[in-house]
Amino acid sequence: MKYKSPAFEAVHSIASDLNQLGLIPKKRMQHFDKSCLTPVEPLLSDQIRAIREKENVSQTVFAHYLNVSSNLVSDWERGIKKPSGAALKLLTLVQHKGIDAIA
Fold first, then answer.
1. Residue 28 half-sphere exposure, CB side, CA atoms within 13 Å?
2. How far apart are alpha carbons 10 and 102 in whole angstroms?
3. Residue closest to 65 by CA, chosen among 51, 78, 77, 75
4. pTM of the shown model
5. Using one digit for the tens of pLDDT, what is the confidence trace for 67-99?
6. 45-102: CATH topology
7. Which residues neighbour 22 within 8 Å (Cβ) at sequence distance 6 or greater?
8. Quick one: which of 77, 79, 8 has its CA closest to 38?
9. Could you say which of 38, 49, 61, 70 would form a disulfide bridge with 77 (CB–CB 3.0 to 4.6 Å)?
């Protein structure tokens, strides 16, 4: 996880511990997640294509690494659909650290 600052990391760590003890409900913990963690920015279709091409892999291979269909990767690259959730996090990770980070 990447935090906005060391102070946010400390606050999130304490809140997470309290959540595990059952003292902070899940809904409240989601608020801490949004407040403390660096948000994942949406990616444009050309950015997704650039990430894949930088890694020198086909859409099929890229889809395999991301655990999605090659049709979905194609849709992202053509701007028909937009990645979200875990797929967006994985794409961002590959963008910053390379495909080996998720291999």
1. 11
2. 27
3. 51
4. 0.70
5. 999 999 999 999 999 999 889 989 998 998 899
6. 434 Repressor (Amino-terminal Domain) (1.10.260)
7. none
8. 8
9. 49
